[in-house]
Specification:
By secondary structure, this protein is α/β, with parallel strands linked by helices. Helix content is about 30%, strand content about 20%. It is built from four helices and four strands.
């Protein structure tokens, strides 16, 4: 994501972070990667506020979504944009046949329970819109795509 955005917008500074050191060895000069924990206190000053903050597939990785949204809100320029892409990890079917997959249902219930006990709930996609509104964001949309 960062590399593509950096190439498309060469006059924009792009910062990418990840908890794991998986960043590529090459990047355009306007793209910088850092190993960082998004749940830690952010090291950016108010005068370094962002125009755009993007997060993807963080369900199961965040222990305190409310705190994260406060930090995002506090570090976003007025009129800035936040985009989160989150996967719903619950099994569904259009015709209800998933209800016959008892082992899969048992597995997802146990996985959901384990993630809650661990303190980093995995199945959060359906809750993030309201959490963003509660944090003060406006014009919050939740676009759902079936795959």
């Amino acid at each position: 994501m960062c590399l593509l955005r950096a190439e498309l917008f060469p006059d924009t500074e792009i910062i990418g972070t990840d908890l794991s050191p998986i960043q590529p060895t090459w990047a355009p000069s306007n793209c910088h990667f850092y190993v960082d924990d998004v749940e830690s206190d952010w090291a950016y000053n108010p005068d370094e506020a962002f125009d755009y903050i993007h997060g993807r597939a963080m369900g199961g990785a965040i222990g305190d979504w409310e705190r994260l949204f406060r930090q995002i809100y506090d570090h976003l320029q007025p009129g800035g944009w936040v985009e989160l892409q989150e996967y719903e990890v619950w099994i569904h079917s259009d015709d209800g046949t998933h209800e016959q997959a008892l082992t899969a249902i048992d597995w997802q219930l146990k996985l959901d329970d384990a993630s809650r006990r661990f303190g980093k709930h995995l199945n959060v996609a359906g809750t993030l819109r309201q959490k963003m509104i509660d944090a003060g964001f406006v014009n919050v949309r939740d676009d759902v795509f079936k795959v």
